[in-house]
């Protein structure tokens, strides 16, 4: 799972290497993480390995402090993998950490990103992304949540919402336990934005249930709804 923005920023790093050419990887300057689950961080190590010795700039890895602590304790711990927050040299490692403060905007080049805590099984955030002219909202992995939609609904230039939809409706109990959404739950969350004409994209569909989820999404009365696919390019 991952979103490339303006060629230079990754929101999550589940496909940081396999989804990008080596040339595209070299353009990445920022990686902003929503949470510590493997499908959102798993190719961050490959990014470091691939780019070692190829780039002159450091890559800023941003996330909640608990996410950064988890990366160092469980991934870049010199047991599972080398610590690329101190390699190749402590004075200039490949990765440079930046702790995100929830609800506070942070600048990444020309992009302003605000991390808003959501309701997931581990500390997790959704994002509001702004470039001065337009904005969009990404749910991250979440169950029903409130603060993210309140913040997004207040934006006059909101152009798009991306909302996770992990399980089909008949697995609502599992979705609630694991803190994910179903098509019906997506519709309820989208309604909180109070903008029925806003382009809406469902993502994070579990592969085993993808076709079933797509059928259920199509049955919703949401004319602006589409399903994101790997490699899709969206211009706001």
Overall description:
By secondary structure, the protein is an alpha/beta fold. The protein has two domains: 1-100, Ribonuclease Z/Hydroxyacylglutathione hydrolase-like (Metallo-beta-lactamase, Chain A), CATH 3.60.15; 104-236, Metallo-beta-lactamase, Chain A, CATH 3.60.15. Helices cover 25% and strands 23% of the residues. It has eight helices and twelve strands. The chain has helices at residues 22-25, 38-41, 44-51, 65-75, 147-153, 172-178, 183-191, 210-218, and strands spanning 3-5, 9-11, 30-32, 59-63, 95-99, 105-108, 111-117, 125-130, 135-138, 158-164, 200-203, 225-227. It has a seven-stranded mixed sheet, covered by helices on one side. The longest helix is centred in the N-terminal third of the chain and has 11 residues, at 65-75. It is globular, with a radius of gyration of 18 Å.
Strand content bin:
15-25%
Overall spatial form: globular
CATH fold naming of the largest domain? Metallo-beta-lactamase, Chain A
Low-confidence stretches: none
How many helices? The count is 8
CATH-scheme architecture of the largest domain: 4-Layer Sandwich
Query: Whole-number radius of gyration?
Result: 18 Å
Q: How helix-rich are the residues, as a percent range? A: 25-40%
User: Structural class, judged by helices and strands?
Assistant: alpha/beta
CATH superfamily of the largest domain: Ribonuclease Z/Hydroxyacylglutathione hydrolase-like
Largest sheet: 7 strands, mixed
SSE pattern, N- to C-terminal: EEHEHHEHEEEEEHEHHEHE
Terminal-residue CA separation: 20 Å
Give the averaged pLDDT, no decimals.
97
Count of β-strands: 12
Strand order of the largest sheet: 6-7-8-9-10-11-12
Give the total of domains: 2
CATH class of the largest domain: Alpha Beta
